[in-house]
Structure formats: C-alpha cells, structure tokens
Design brief:
Blueprint lengths: L14 H10 L11 E2 L36 H15 L12 E4 L2 H11 L4 E6 L4 H7 L6 E6 L10 H11 L1 E7 L11 H14 L2 E5 L7 E3 L5 E3 L18 E6 L12 E4 L2 H9 L1 H4 L5 H10 L2 H29 L12 E5 L10 H10 L2 E2 L1 E2 L20 E5 L4 H16 L3
Parallel strand pairs: 1-12, 3-4, 3-5, 5-6, 6-9
Antiparallel strand pairs: 2-10, 7-8, 9-10, 11-14, 13-14
Helix pairs in contact: 3-7, 5-6, 10-12
Amino acid sequence: MPVTPAALRDVPYMGVIYVVAEAMKLGFRNGHPDWSNLGQGQPEVGEMAGAPERIQSVDLLPEDAAYGPLEGIDELREVVAAHYNRLYRQGKSSQYTAANVSVASGGRLALTRAAAALGSINVGHQVPDYTAYEDMFDYHLSRLNPVTLWGRAEDGFAVTAEDLATAIREHELGAFIFSNPCNPTGTVVQGDELQRYVSLARSTGMALLADEFYSHFIYEQASDGSFSAGSGPISSAAFVEDVEQDPVLIFDGLTKNYRYPGWRIGWVVGPADMVETTARTASAIDGGPSRLAQRAALEVLEPARADQETNALREVFCAKRNVMIERLTALGVRFPRPSHSTFYCWGSLEDLPAPFNDGMEFFRRALEHRVLTVPGEFFDVNPGKRRQGESPYRQWMRFSFGPPMENMLGGLTRLEEMLRSPS
C-alpha cells in the first residue's frame, strides 16, 4: 500500500539542494552547457591546469563485497594520520595515528555522526554558516541546546576568539562547531586567532568541532590589495599540543580539496576516544564507508600527488576568485571583506536597484537567465526556527566560482545582462 501523506513529516530542501531543485523545474541539469551554476557547492571535477590526471579506475578486490569497519579501513586511517602529521605536525612530539582517524561516507555524514555522539550540552555555532548544521541540530534538539554566536561584517562574519571565550563563560558551552574556512563567507580563522580557539578548547574542556573541508583553498592578500594563491593549507591540527588530550575534532575529506565529491570520502581526526565514540554511532546511522572508495582514496593522498593537486587548486581558483570579485563589484555587489578562502564570494545586494536588492528575488530572476545563485538567508543557521522574523541575510548572496572559468564567465555575463534589463 502507498504511504499516506500523514505518515511523513514535511522535509524541506536545504540551501543548495533547494536551489538546484528549483532550477531543474526550468530545465537545468548538472553539466548542461546552457546553464551556469554559480550556486554550486562542489569544485570543478575535470582535468585542471597543473593538477595530476584524474583517477579514472580502481580494481575491485574480493573483500570489497563485504562490510568494512565502521571507522574505515586501517590503510586509509594510517594514510590520513600521516597526511596530517606531514602537513601540520612536523617536529611535534605528539603525532596522530590510525586510532585518531575515523572515515565516513562524506563530510556531512562525519559531522552527523559527531552530532549524534554529543551529550546533553549547550553547543555554540556561528552565523552565517554551513546550511546543513541547522538540520543536524534539529534531529537532536531534545538533547542539544544550540547557542547562536553572531559574526560581524567587519570581522568577515567570523566569531572572534574573544567572543568565543565570552560565550564559553556565559553559556557554559560544551562544544562549538564552525566551518573554517567558512562556507559561505570565504573567511578563514588562522594564525594566532586559530591558536586561541584551540587554547580555549584545551583550557575549558569545550569540544572544538572544526569543519575544515576548504582548508587548501587559501588566498593571500598583498599590500596593494591584490590576491594570489596561498603558500599552503591551514588547520587546527597545527595548534594541538597533545593529540589525545586536546578536545579538538577536525573534519575534512576528498570532497572539496581534492575534487572528488562523488566518492563520498570524509573523515574526522582527533583524540582516539572521541573519534571512536563518533564511529560507534555509525552502527545505527550508516553502517560504515565503502571499501572500494577508501582504497581509491589512498592514491589521492600520496604526498607528491596530493601537493601537486592542492598547489594547482590554489592557483586556478584564485584566478577565478579575482575575476568574480571584479565583475560582481562592477555590478554593484558589495564585499565588506573579500573572500580569503573557499570558492565562494559572500556579497551584499543592498546597493542594487529593486527588485535585485532582495536575495530570493535576485535568485528567481537569475534562474530565468539560466544562472544559479544561493540566497544568503539559507545560511542563517536557526535550529528549530526558534528565532522569529526576517533573516538579517535577506540582502546577501553566495556566489560560487566552483565551475570552470569559461562556464563561470558565461554566468557572470548573463547576470550583467539581467541587471541592465531588469524588466
């Protein structure tokens, strides 16, 4: 018998998924040559200048047909641990091992496992931030109490270490989750400020959940204001003193930094007991990641190949970033603090003429010109919809330079045409 409507609750699409669903009603599909997806949450996945050739095949082994360990195969866990030690912990006495790593089928699943493992605590989160956090919180509101920490435009919408310390004291935070580099703003907490974040976790016992899926998309600003590819990635791992004692969980994977989103390989790195606890939730949530995809990941993280990929990534994406900022600024989109990371530009539409100074209206009109964008209000993480009223990000928009340059340029040209002919 068919399920009656009353048996299911209403589950709305979130953020980018909603954008794509609306675009599909008008004929969009992934890879359609007549559309430009300036809303996409994945990087271009084809061949790229300076990067190694894309991996096209992996051999099946007999054991790939069996269930794998909930926490991932030992080979990949060891490679991920070595990856972090090589990039962030050279010369440090405390080193990550396979026991400090758990693999999941994608980043959202790794984060979902962690949310399911949290106790009855107050959990801080910044806004704006990654749209999926809201839904993750919603599943656990009977146990978790979300506490909103507001980022300020002058700080790139990041929560300062000082504000985090105040929130820990005033709200007795048991955990703080944040994307760093941040989706959607492109702001990155790094250097002394990131060190203070980690120190706060160490001194207070608050669990720091650092979503670092854009950790290699780093761009550096020169004294003349121009941006170029950064010298390397950033991670909270660089400031951890004792990998078993500092309550820092780091989430990353192949999705963004290595441009294999469809492989669904993510991981969490942190103290072994915390990592094991998050992996235990997989017995009910997902059953563990694919063995086949994990073995393919081993080649991606081979040091020379990994560095070639991420060095090329910063060069190519910084070039696209610079073009997008220039073109959108000329259209009247305002960037109080230009993107220093990710492949997103977080712009204010306030100075545009009506109706384009409203995110949802801009989004709808852009679809008519075969361009996808993501309204800023989707990043107003509001678990349980406890806050009422209009979103403060109604006049903001996230623009993605994830597509290849040529496709991105076509989308920007169509946005220019849209704003010149508002009727």
